[in-house]
Amino acid sequence: MKESKLIRIIRRFDKTEQKAFDKFIRSPFFYEGRRAEEMVLLFRLIIKAAPDYPANKLDREYLYRKLYPGKPSVKGKLEKLASELTKLAQNFIAVQYSDEFNDPDLRMLTQAKFFREKGMEQQFQKNINQIEQSLANKLVQDKTFFYHKYLL
Questions:
Q1: How would you write 71-134 as a 3-class SS string?
Q2: pLDDT tens digits, residue range 60-83?
Q3: Residue 99 pLDDT
Q4: Cα–Cα distance, 20 to 119 (Å, whole number)
Q5: Nearest to 89 by CA among 47, 43, 50, 45
Q6: For the chain, which residues make up each domain, given as ranges?
Q7: DSSP for residue 60
Q8: Labelling 4: which of 69, 120, 127, 131 has CA 20 to 30 A away?
Q9: Which own/partner contact pairs does 56-63 have at CB distance under 8 Å and 24+ positions apart?
Q10: Pick from 77, 67, 78: which is nearest to 1 by CA?
């Protein structure tokens, strides 16, 4: 597993991202699967191998014994778990690096879209007014400024 996509992604997480990802995978909002505890344990086993990530600590048999002590090996079980954890890691990256997550104006535009689609006209208009005010107060009219104007 040392060269798997999952390991390559997790190796790039800094300490803050590791902690955030640990919370992310424990959150039922992001993952409601019945294997949540196994995923958390797999992630923590991988992190324990940091910073060198030696092959013996990421060996399939070693990880399986740690995840399922005393149980016979089931072909594909660890791989399926790793695949699910990889998808969660990719979702985590999308959330962490999302413009809406980091940009208050874009977040308000996204909320405005929700309000309009749900027929919440008063809240929609309030958000639009706040965005227009925010854009009017911008000192720098860069590409982000014009992108937000375009989205309005």
A1: CCCCCCHHHHHHHHHHHHHHHHHHHHCCHHHHCHHHHHHHHHHHHHHCCCHHHHHHHHHHHHHH
A2: 999 999 999 999 999 999 999 999
A3: 67
A4: 34
A5: 43
A6: 5-97, 101-151
A7: H
A8: 69
A9: 58/1, 58/2, 58/7, 59/1, 60/1, 63/1
A10: 78
Q: Strand, helix or coil at 8?
A: helix
8 Å CB contact between 83 and 125: no
b/e for 40-55, b at 16 or more Cβ within 10 A?
A: ebbbeebbebeeebee
Find the length of the chain: 152
Residue 132, Cβ neighbours under 10 Å: how many? 13
Q: Using the Cα atoms of residue 106, residue 15, residue 21 and residue 82 in order, give the sign of their dihedral.
A: positive
